[in-house]
Amino acid sequence: MFQIDTTTNRIKRLEKKLFSDLGFSERYHLQEWLAHEPLVFGEDLLIIQKEFDGFSETNERLDLLGLDKNGMLVVIENKLDDSGRDVVWQALKYASYCSTLKKDQIVEIFQSYLDKCCGGGDAQKLLCDFLEVPDLAEVVMNSGNNQRLILVAAQFRKEVTSTVLWLLSNGLRLQCFKATPYSLGNELFLQIEQIIPTPEAAEFMIGINEKEAAEKATESQQKSRHRIRLDFWTQALEKLKTKTDLYKNVSPSREHWLSAGSGVSGCPYNLIFGTKIIRVEMQIFWGSQAENKYIFDHLLSQKELIQSTFGDNLSWERLDDRISSYIRYGKSVEGDNRENWPEIIEWFIEHIIKLESAFKKPLSDAYSAMKKAGVGTTALEVNGEQTSQDQIAV
């Protein structure tokens, strides 16, 4: 790995190090870094516990327990300079222990983590936000034996990699990430790269597993909700299309959300229909995390004007540890009661028109400002972290 120095137009070699030589430990350093920056794994993961020991009749502890966007538990095992021979066996044991966890237990585990490590918070609300559902009843969590495994180490022994590849061929979701520290003078750098499976193969496998998870969820729990939503959106779109052009080319959906283009790619207007809450929102996931946060911050700088045009205060959710950001306005309802649907539909019509009016020009200006500033193009991202042009590690 080298550092680019644009001042001298030269590159400088970074010195590869061992964690042990730098005085770093597995528990107090590597584990903490991963817990606070799970985006290093290349996807949105929610860490719900660390040093988890909630297993019956055993004193074993798994390093990190996470949740992915499909509601699957992710067991993360960390080693420092050497994976050791038994890391796969450890992870498999922990996954088997976690396979019995129910939804209410997962909420309880996450709440314990928030109280102990994060200064508190509402576990149910944060899980809903992460899974992008209005109610946890909308999702199946920890379905069947679909738990995922992530192994992290500086070096992986051959007996480990051969076992991992065999397990992958038999349908287990397992990834190996190589963590390598580097130094340049007094500065330290960390590179985390997925080595098994390759990113291209992983993308294909994730697509297959997501499809299977969606099908199982539909078959087991969501048929009734899908039918209700389809009926609701059919009625809602009949009225929406007479009041605004936003949804003129949109068809009814079985999902709890309905999106319409804002004129800026990756920044749709969403209608959210839940059993307990309805919401209009602007979602910002145009490109990289840096680009999304730039657009959000540009809009936030015009908060007073936007809210004045909208006619009420909005919920501004930057979500620093997520790729997307949201600007939302909601209302509590009884969505399953069909007698409430006419009132809900009128509320959607009124507030989506207000939302578009409030954001149409500011969003266009934010997008133009981002492109002019060169965010995402004049700066490079290395291992998920944005670095200035003067000193870029590659």
UniProtKB/TrEMBL annotation:
It holds the Pfam family DUF4268. This is DUF4268 domain-containing protein. It comes from the Bacteria. Residues 228-362 form the DUF4268 domain.
